[in-house]
């Protein structure tokens, strides 16, 4: 394909109502045909009525007084919000003319959802693509990537070995025909989540509690999603932003490294695009709790009803989360307790995707635990949702703790050719605000080139 099917601006992804009505209608009709390029205009947190896709979790599930609001990523094209930063990174390269159709093959380093997003977006926009990811992720992820026509390039290991995918990408980038959508280091990922996700979070709580956000929890993979916290703090300066990572891979907390089962997070690094200035706390979540929690939500409808959750609510929850979504929910409950939040307070978090790519994860759980009958699920429900404590929460607001994170970032990124001066420039909020302001430039450039095409 020689012509790029230009898609939405950042502002149109935040407010699809601002898209030309005829194009908007075509996009809504295109949802029936997954690989119709008009689906680029469905990259948004909003539904057909321009309302945010969200769930306010039943308090019979969370056991806390605060309102826990979860934005649902499964409604994005390809089934995950990671398609947003994949598109944003590619479209910025297109309008900057650093990525040229017919000349470049797109590289997508990932542990899953971003790779799926890259495969999907490149299919719609007419590029060949290679997704580089660890060789021990869920089989559903590989199947979906290949379904969209991308080539898989697998590196050894699991979620915690993503550094090997970066090293492989670094090698492949030496070929000038390859262009990388490097989610861990390119700032379109930050821009998408600060503008589109952050402002969507702000709107999502307008009719809930006091209409403000007390806390935002986000498991850290590429650290794109947590950029929403920068925009949340602009609206609600008192809001606390909490980075979640696996108990088994506590890199931000104390430099720890280890294997874990929460796909999409805990990548043994402080990513380049992580604005640690706005990370107030880091909390650790045990990986098995997220998988057991997923089992309860998906297969324990009767158990949830015993707790006072209606069958209708339970059925909505059933398909809405993957392991990282459960991690974010457990983290939200933990922080509601830690911060002593009350019934008017709102904690916002994100479900990156839905259950559809995790059947094999529950199959693995069944193999590891000989018994998963209802009496076991009742015990797990109590252990995971009722006994969540305030342990493993670490305050990162002090200058000393910020410096710890900056040091980790230097350790991770100097070896990839970034200068210390560049990394030091990230220690000032003005760096991030200037990067965010580039959205206005890209909005205009995308509209201008879209009109020509």
Count the DSSP helices.
19
Q: Which topology of the largest domain does CATH recognise?
A: Rossmann fold
User: What is the number of E strands?
Assistant: 11
Backbone structural class: alpha/beta
User: Regions with pLDDT < 50 over 5+ consecutive residues?
Assistant: none
Shape: globular
Terminal CA distance: 13 Å
Radius of gyration from the CA trace? 21 Å
**What is the string of SSEs from the N terminus onward?**
HHEHEHEHEHEHEHEHEHEHHHHEHHEHHH
> Taking strands numbered 1, 2, ... along the chain, how are they ordered across the largest sheet?
1-2-10-7-8-9-11
Number of domains: 3
GO biological process, one term: alpha-amino acid metabolic process
Domain Tryptophan synthase beta chain-like PALP: 72-353
Keywords: Pyridoxal phosphate
Cofactor: pyridoxal 5'-phosphate
Description:
With 453 residues, the protein is an alpha/beta fold. The protein is built from 19 helices and eleven strands. The chain folds into three domains: 33 residues, no CATH class; 231 residues, Rossmann fold (3-Layer(aba) Sandwich); 100 residues, 3-Layer(aba) Sandwich (Rossmann fold), CATH 3.40.50. Helix content is 45%, strand content 12%. β7, α9 and β8 form a beta-alpha-beta unit. The longest helix has 24 residues. The two termini are 13 Å apart. The model has no long low-confidence stretch (mean pLDDT 93).
Summarize this structure as a short list of keywords or feature phrases.
single chain, 453 residues, Rossmann fold, 3 domains, 7-stranded mixed β-sheet, 19 helices, 45% helix, Pyridoxal-phosphate dependent enzyme, Cys_Synth/Cystath_Beta-Synth, TrpB-like_PALP_sf, pyridoxal phosphate, TrpB-like_PALP
């Amino acid at each position: 394909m020689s012509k790029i099917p230009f898609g939405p601006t950042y502002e149109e992804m935040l407010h699809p109502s601002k898209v030309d009505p005829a194009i908007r209608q075509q996009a809504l009709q295109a949802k029936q045909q997954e690989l119709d390029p008009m689906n680029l205009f469905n990259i948004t947190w909003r539904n057909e009525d321009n309302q945010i896709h969200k769930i306010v979790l039943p308090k019979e599930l969370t056991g806390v007084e605060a309102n826990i609001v979860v934005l649902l990523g499964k409604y994005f094209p390809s089934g995950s919000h990671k398609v947003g930063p994949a598109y944003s990174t590619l479209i910025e390269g297109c309008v900057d003319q650093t990525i040229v159709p017919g000349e470049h093959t797109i590289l997508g380093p990932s542990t899953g959802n971003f790779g799926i997003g890259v495969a999907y977006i490149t299919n719609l926009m007419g590029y060949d693509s290679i997704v580089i990811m660890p060789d021990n992720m869920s089989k559903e992820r590989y199947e979906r990537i290949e379904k969209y026509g991308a080539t898989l390039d697998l590196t050894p290991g699991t979620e915690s070995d993503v550094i090997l995918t970066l090293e492989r990408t670094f090698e492949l980038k030496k070929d000038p025909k390859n262009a990388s959508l490097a989610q861990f280091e390119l700032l379109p990922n930050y821009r998408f989540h600060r503008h589109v996700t952050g402002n969507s979070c702000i709107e999502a709580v307008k009719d809930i509690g006091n209409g403000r956000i007390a806390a935002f929890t986000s498991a850290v993979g590429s650290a794109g999603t947590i950029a929403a916290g920068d925009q949340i703090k602009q609206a609600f300066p008192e809001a606390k932003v909490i980075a979640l990572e696996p108990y088994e891979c506590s890199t931000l907390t104390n430099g720890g490294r280890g294997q874990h089962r929460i796909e999409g997070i805990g990548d043994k690094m402080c990513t380049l695009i992580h604005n640690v200035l706005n990370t107030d706390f880091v909390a650790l979540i045990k990986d098995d709790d997220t998988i057991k929690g997923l089992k309860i939500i998906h297969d324990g409808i009767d158990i949830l009803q015993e707790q006072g959750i209606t069958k209708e609510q339970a059925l909505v929850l059933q398909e809405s989360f993957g392991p990282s979504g459960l991690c974010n929910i457990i983290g939200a409950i933990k922080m509601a307790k830690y911060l002593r939040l009350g019934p008017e307070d709102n904690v916002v978090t994100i479900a990156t995707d839905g259950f559809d790519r995790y059947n094999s994860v529950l199959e693995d759980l069944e193999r590891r635990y000989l018994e998963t009958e209802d009496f076991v699920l009742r015990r797990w429900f109590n252990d995971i949702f009722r006994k969540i404590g305030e342990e493993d929460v670490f305050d990162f607001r002090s200058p000393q703790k910020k410096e710890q994170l900056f040091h980790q970032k230097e350790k991770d990124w100097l070896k990839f050719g970034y200068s210390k001066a560049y990394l030091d420039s990230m220690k000032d909020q003005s760096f991030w605000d200037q990067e965010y302001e580039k959205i206005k430039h890209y909005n205009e450039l995308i509209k201008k080139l879209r009109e020509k095409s």
